[in-house]
Amino acid sequence: MSTQKLATQALHAGHDVKQNAGTRAVPIYQTTSYVFNDADHAANLFSLKELGFIYTRLNNPTNQILQDRLAAIEGGVGAVVFASGTGAIATGLLTLLKAGDHIVASSSLYGGTYNLLNVTLPRLGITTTFVDADNPANFGDAVQENTRAFFVESLGNPKLDVLDLEEISKHAKAAKVPFIVDNTVATPALLNPIKHGANIVIHSLTKYIGGQGTSLGGAIIDAGNFDWSNGKFPEFTEPSLGYHGLKYYETLGAASYTFKLILEGLRDFGGALSPTNAFQIIQGLETLSVRIKKHSENALALAKWLAEQDEVAWVNYPGLENNKYKPLADKYLPNGQSGVVTFGAKGGFEAAKAIANETKIFSLLANIGDTKSLIIHPSSTTHQQLNTEQQASAGVTEDLIRLSVGIEDLDDLKNDLKSAFAKIKKTVLT
Ligand SMILES: Cc1ncc(COP(=O)(O)O)c(C=O)c1O
Asked: Any bridge partners for residue 218, and if so which?
């Protein structure tokens, strides 16, 4: 294990300059496939007697550098990258679960993930019980005989609930199932879930890690700390029908899940990351430590300022002194709480929608984690398909506006919101 800190690893980990023609920047290996030395070499690669590159759907040298870098900064034994965060989540779960299995998940998940668990996976016979994550005991209470995974977001999008990962992980351990944590909003620069009991960490690289709003990507980091031989996961201990009778746990030990994601997950579902996108995401990752600091500072300052505005009914940011999650933020996110802030518009649904329509620096779009500031009204957009009750458990109310606070000048951001408030005062609120 390296003793280097994240700021250093984010720039260097995984890139052996000498093996890459002395390139100081990570090169883009834009190739679909790799020439074998001879037929025996080819056979050995397919039978895992030797490790190496076969085909870019499975792996690629640029992607491998990103994978090694992510594993280093999250503290895992391996990582696998995907075409999007959603690709990572879907492939990660489908590589682990089968019809008849059950998940216990926090109810405050990103809308797309909620839909996957609530609607799409049940069609394949995989069901989920959603629980209020504020009480970690709810996870233990929801465990069934067929439960095979816990799934949460460390900092929920957009509820901004900070989860008590250590307490929830105790219930996962008791149930002998892997604890999967989507760490997208917090980022590894602010929180490492593996240090708090996670077995698998997921990222949408599209957000803060890529950071520039140019490229979709996703990743799974395997902590390598789960006992796949505990009797609940025969696909890891019995000969695999899907890969030449390979016994994953016996052969690959701590890295079993990493290899299963590549050999079965990427091979069968095909959600590989383009090497050019991996390159773009690496450019973002290299400055993550400085960007996330500025995002967090701007978000906290803007949240405090919003709380003083007449047009604002309430503000939610875990770094605010009076926030319900402040004690958990102090424990899990002491160096900043990232860039997402939500607030309620006085005047409700129509006022919130109108404010999102009027800002000029804050772009109205469905994303978070860009260096540029973003705004959206979830109730009429990202969470439109959920009923009022489902919206409420995801932390979405009709008056809620979600800001992804960028790294622009703070006064300019305040002025942008101020003029949007003034405009809707004249129209919607009169
Ligand atoms: C917390 C979280 N996880 C996963 C995703 C999905 O990522 P992607 O859009 O890269 O598929 C998102 C997207 O907003 C997200 O906010």
From this structure: 82, 204
